[in-house]
Structure formats: structure tokens, C-alpha cells
Amino acid sequence: MPTTKVGAELLFELIATAYERSSVMVTTNLPFENWTKVLGSERLTGATLDRLTHRCKIIETKGESYRLQDATRRSRTRKP
Q: The domain containing residue 68 runs over which residues?
């Protein structure tokens, strides 16, 4: 979902402030190439990803969503 310019700049500021000072974990269901659609600026997206991906560990997962698995399990255990 696209964010406002202010929202995108605040996210960048948060990441930039934490950059090389603390650990940051980000989870997303979007590949990096789609981040510009959300942040609205190629330059801001590039700067954000530059800081996030420098000295990082990227973990990609495949498979069904944990939330979907949980919802399915709960719906099976409900009594009619």
C-alpha cells in the first residue's frame, strides 16, 4: 500500500538513525523492486534499501502464511 511522502521520509529517518548503531529487522511480503511503489521515490527507496542491506542477512521464506495456517487450524477446531 503506498505511503505518504511524509510517511516514507519518516521510515527512512528511522532506518537511517538506526543504521550501524543498532539491529533492525524488517519483514515484508514485497520484493525490493516493488518498494518504490510504496515509498513513492526511487531515490528514497534506494537510500533506504542501501542502509537496510549493508552488512545484512536476507532470509527469504516460502510457503503458506503462518497466520493463514493458524486461522485454518482454529476454524477446524471450532465446534459447530
A: 5-77
Residue 32 phi/psi, 5° resolution?
A: -55, -35
The string of pLDDT tens digits covering residues 41-65 is 999 999 999 999 999 999 988 888 8
The answer to whether 73 and 38 have CB atoms below 8 angstroms apart is no
| Contact between residue 52 and residue 24 where contact means Cβ atoms under 8 Å apart | yes
Residues contacting residue 39 through CB under 8 Å, at least 6 positions apart: 3, 8, 11, 12, 45, 48
Cell (9 digits) for 29 = 511480503
Distance CA 64, CA 27 (A): 15
User: What does the pLDDT look like over 7-48, one tens digit per residue?
Assistant: 999 999 999 999 999 999 999 989 999 999 999 999 999 999
Total count of domains within the chain: 1
Give the three cell numbers for residue 39: 515509498
